[in-house]
Amino acid sequence: MKIDVIVSSIIPGGGITNFVAQLCKALSCMHSLRLIVTHEEVRKEQVVWFNIFLSRGLIDISKSYKFWRYIQLINIWRKDTPDCIINNYNAVGQYVLPLLSKKVRNLHIVHGITSDFKRVATINKAYTSHWVVPSRKTAELIMTGNRSVKSECITLIPHGVEEVTKDTIPVHRLYNKLVLIYVGVLEEHKGVDILPDVVKELERRNISYQFNIIGEGSLRERISRNLASEIADGKVRLYGTIKHKEVLKMFTQSDILVYPTRIDSFGLVIVESMMAGCVPIVGRIAGVTDQIIDNTHDGFLVSVKAEDIIQKIYSLSQDTSLLKRMSEQARYNASAHYSLTVMIEAYNKLLTKLL
Q1: pTM above 0.90?
Q2: What residues contact 122, with CB distance under 8 A and at least 6 apart?
Q3: DSSP 8-class letter at 80
């Protein structure tokens, strides 16, 4: 099967880029792939990496003037017509659909829950064969106000992550210390504004801990200022942005993911942490985080309040058998439902159905 994957940009470390890379790598085993990038020039090293898996190569039309991108894309698809287009939040690809052969199937992956993800996903919706969503909330977003979009044209396929082997002894068993981790942007919609309150309560309750905060954002300075003494003592570490493989390594060395998110389209960081054996304490978002976590079994769903988060951390700190049991259950759940293998099997099944 000839498949064209289209994306606006390839940004190292970007969420959609990481997804597209894993998707191309996996689908290349069974299909003839080509990647088309429309808006930002692809770095040479990225071209080399992707071409390992792309039997039909990578085409970068980002240097073309805006209008000519549409013309160029139409010519590309008329000259070498794919059986299926997999669109990743790319408006150019959606706009030219009416000018392509009706035999071409367009599969649009909806990566987010903002209004712009919905806007792009529903451009020329009559020419889109199917939508893939990572969560129930994303499906609701697409269907709201779009009567022509039927539920049978939407398939829920959660994003998958690589399986991780946790081959290190949890730090709290070595040093009687809980290792906490947060990964994400340091913005209010991720709930990081309450992290200083969480840390202060850890101190008040004399819980032995190490809290690693990974990410950048507008609240970094405030967090740094409010936790100056804890940072000076080495109990809290602000890492900024680090390589993805380093994040995965830190997950294997952590006990608890503290992720008080208020807005999320899926929560890939939750699954990645669970795959490494972290017990997630996560903000409850209907149709998103409650889809991943089985509350009290493999993690905790909480309101975004410091006292609720502390209560869960404290219960785990006082019962290492509970921590171990939930850690094992988290790994099992992530491996059974959110591995790359599971995700790719679902995509192959859907592609076979469409064609």
Answers
A1: no
A2: 128, 142, 146, 149
A3: S
Compute how many other C-beta atoms are within 10 angstroms of the C-beta atom of residue 87: 26
- Is residue 204 in some structural domain? yes
Pair (85, 176) in one structural domain: no
22, 111, 66: which is closest to 344 by C-alpha? 22
Residues 139 and 191 in one domain: no
What CATH number has the domain bearing residue 297? 3.40.50.2000
Domain count across the chain: 2
Same domain, 124 and 247: no
Torsion of CA 22, 90, 191, 175, to 10 degrees: 10
Domain region containing 52: 2-160+339-354
Q: Digits of tens for pLDDT over the chain (355 positions)?
A: 999 999 999 987 677 888 898 899 889 988 999 999 999 998 888 888 888 889 999 999 999 988 999 999 999 999 999 999 999 999 999 999 999 999 999 999 999 888 999 999 999 999 999 999 999 999 999 999 888 888 999 999 999 988 876 555 444 444 578 999 999 999 999 999 999 999 999 999 999 999 999 999 999 999 999 999 999 999 999 999 888 889 999 999 999 999 999 998 888 899 999 999 999 999 999 999 999 999 999 999 999 999 999 999 999 999 999 999 999 999 999 999 999 999 999 999 999 998 8
Sheet holding 105-109, edge to edge: 58-60, 32-37, 2-7, 84-88, 105-109, 130-133, 154-156
Same domain, 183 and 288: yes
Q: What's CA 323's distance to the chain center, in Å?
A: 25
Residues 177 and 146 in one domain: no
- Helix ranges (H only) for the chain are 15-27, 44-51, 66-79, 91-95, 115-121, 136-143, 171-175, 195-204, 220-226, 228-232, 244-252, 268-275, 289-292, 306-318, 320-337, 340-354
- For 122, how many CA atoms within 13 A lie in the half-sphere containing its CB? 19
* 3-state class (DSSP) for residue 298: coil
Assess if residue 279 is contained within a domain.
Answer: yes
Partners of 339 in the beta sheet? 161
In a domain, 166, yes or no: no
Q: Is the same domain home to 127 and 179?
A: no
